[in-house]
Amino acid sequence: MEPQQVDLTAPFGGRTLPNPLTTASGCAGYGRELAKFVPLDALGSVTTKTIMPYARSGRATPRMAETPSGMLNSIGLQGAGIAHFVKHELPWLAERGARVLVSIAGERLEEFAEVAEQLNGQPGVIGLELNISCPNVADRGLVFACNPATSYDVVRAVRRVADAELPVYAKLSPDVTSITEIAAACVQAGADGLSMINTTLGMAIDPVTMRPALAGTTGGVSGPAIRPIAVRCVHQVHAEMLAGRIPRVPILAMGGLRTGLDALEFALAGASGVAVGTTLFNDPAAPLRILDELRTELAARDFTSFTDAVGYAHRPVS
Amino acid sequence: MAHPVQTEAEVVESAPAGAYRRLVLRAPEAARRVRPGHFATLAVGGGTSSMLLRRAFSIHRADVEAGTIELVVAEHGPGTRELVRSRVGDRLSLIAPLGTPFPLPEGPVSALLVAGGYGSAPLFPLAEEIKRRGGQVGFILGAATEARLFGVEAARALTQDVLVVTEDGSAGLTGLVTEPLAQAIKAIDATVVHACGPMPMLRAVTGIAEELGTRCWTAVEESMACGVGICMTCVLPVVGEDGVSRFVRSCTDGPVFDGAKVRWADLGTVPADLEGAAAMGVRG
Lengths: 318, 284
Ligand SMILES: Cc1cc2nc3c(=O)[nH]c(=O)nc-3n(C[C@H](O)[C@H](O)[C@H](O)COP(=O)(O)OP(=O)(O)OC[C@H]3O[C@@H](n4cnc5c(N)ncnc54)[C@H](O)[C@@H]3O)c2cc1C
Ligand SMILES: Cc1cc2nc3c(=O)[nH]c(=O)nc-3n(C[C@H](O)[C@H](O)[C@H](O)COP(=O)(O)O)c2cc1C
Ligand code: FES
Fold this sequence. Notes:
The complex is a heterodimer.
Chain A: E1 10-12, E2 15-17, E3 21-23, E4 46-47, E5 64-67, E6 70-73, H1 82-95, E7 100-104, H2 109-119, E8 125-131, E9 135-136, E10 142-143, H3 148-161, E11 168-172, H4 179-188, E12 193-196, E13 200-203, E14 205-206, E15 211-212, E16 218-222, H5 227-242, E17 251-254, H6 260-269, E18 273-276, H7 279-282, H8 286-300, H9 306-309
Parallel strand pairs in A: 3-18, 4-7, 7-8, 8-11, 11-12, 12-17, 17-18
Antiparallel strand pairs in A: 1-2, 5-6, 6-16, 9-10, 13-16, 14-15
Helix pairs in contact in A: 2-3, 3-4, 5-6, 6-8
Chain B: E1 5-17, E2 20-26, H1 28-33, E3 39-42, E4 55-63, E5 68-73, H2 78-84, E6 91-98, E7 110-116, H3 123-132, E8 136-143, H4 152-158, E9 162-166, E10 173-174, H5 181-187, E11 192-196, H6 199-211, E12 215-219, E13 235-239, E14 245-249, E15 256-258
Parallel strand pairs in B: 7-8, 7-11, 8-9, 9-10, 11-12
Antiparallel strand pairs in B: 1-2, 1-6, 2-5, 3-4, 3-6, 4-5, 12-15, 13-14
The complex binds flavin-adenine dinucleotide, flavin mononucleotide and FE2/S2 (inorganic) cluster (FES).
């Protein structure tokens, strides 16, 4: 099997993407700067930074700290709001042939729906990713994705207003007792796919000031340090799907993806798509390298296509 | 932002420079694009390094003919410790040029260049450009100690107006760069100040320049995760053309900012009148 013969195409909603690779939300901005390092249309899709209905300043600095094989961030969803995105960023992305997965959020259900509605019929948009792992003011600082009922409600509210052709993915937090329970609630509510995982809550203390290193005290850990957690989440949820306890929907995996071998690992665990996040900060040209490596890894194991590898780790022991 | 080049650059020279290490890297394509004030980032270790984030360094010099870029690296933590140990022949993953450079004057001006520590690194090519346009320059180079000064000889080769200031008095005047600043601005009739160094220094320099009605360009140093504009970790509050304050990225919108537009007193906070502050629960 020659690497060049491996079929990397990946189904997504009703369409077929050239490959299963996307960018993790918040790790590629709105694509403009990344385009200086990788042609955006070479990626299966581009996932935007999470967009809210209105402008948000985000948190105070310092917003990041490096940790072993990872980093902490507390950006706080800085952004100019949906109207600005639709007017200034989306047309630019569409012109470049980027297939855009738009990550959206709100502090209340209505806000999720409001943003989703504004994306109906917009050029370039191929799907929505609901960042339900962000702080929820209406629910006293809890996170939607920590509770099956609130997760269900958000997905429901968006699925009701979003264009039927746009797949809606729910992005889950690993910081829960049972991720399969949340996953089940999202799929029941009509999620067409699940994104796993968002950052996991962490903290660092500056040895010089002897105070928290981040202005926001705590932040989200990302990078290779969390990959085993992400693989576990994907494997657990895919297993529930195979067992028929959760209706089968595609999983988009992320968390420390750095190489083609990591991408393969996620596929074997059950992911139909993968996203590269923090690795872009180290190597903005990583997506093309990862795709090349993925082809090689698949070929080395005699997979003729990426989809054949999806969920392969679950096959019964013979 | 300039169009950056990502490349494996060979170390062609590594030499001590006082308390610092001067690294010369071969990167012809990147070198061609460099303007004074641009910076570069280096990755630490290889593709499996546990230090994921690149380290940012001002570009001290770019030699188009030799195809090289020079950086001045101070040992600070584990990443820079590893970088200063790199040897001739090693290859380092480099991205350059990054950021917005210093604005260059149309014609002759008198400019005062103020630096703290290795902050002088990007000021020499700037001084050369200003002189090439018929202008004149003066330097105030400050540091904690004599060993932490950088480029005093290079400055003297460009102008006789060089003031050296150290906090411990081990070289030149004793104190901070801000002490002789007002007098120096007047002495050379500076219409513009360019400053690079620690944030408190930039704030103080801007204040003094503003009082004298002198334009002040500052090259800031904010903690950066990506350096290329995709992560939003490096922001600071800056007043825009429209009078509205926003958190802007120091890696792409900076590192050079009009000092008068940076809200120095508000660094590390979310000022209530910042665009989008209300959404963070900050009340105006
Ligand atoms: C635009 C710009 C230009 C710079 N120019 C120079 C230069 O010419 N020479 C020089 O020696 N240093 C320069 N610095 C500072 C240099 O980037 C840091 O000292 C270095 O990143 C520290 O890395 P470390 O692993 O040694 O320290 P650590 O403290 O272990 O670093 C941990 C993380 O914090 C970041 N970080 C820590 N300190 C700083 C800092 N002061 N600024 C930005 N990020 C930081 C690191 O990049 C890394 O991601 C510059 C920084 C910026 C933003
Ligand atoms: C700087 C930064 C900003 C992020 N911003 C968002 C965001 O806006 N929305 C979101 O859903 N996830 C956000 N994330 C989480 C990532 O999308 C991803 O889920 C997580 O980082 C794990 O993947 P990684 O280890 O490959 O980065 C952010 C992560 C980082 C590091
Ligand atoms: S360092 Fe990433 S946006 Fe500036």
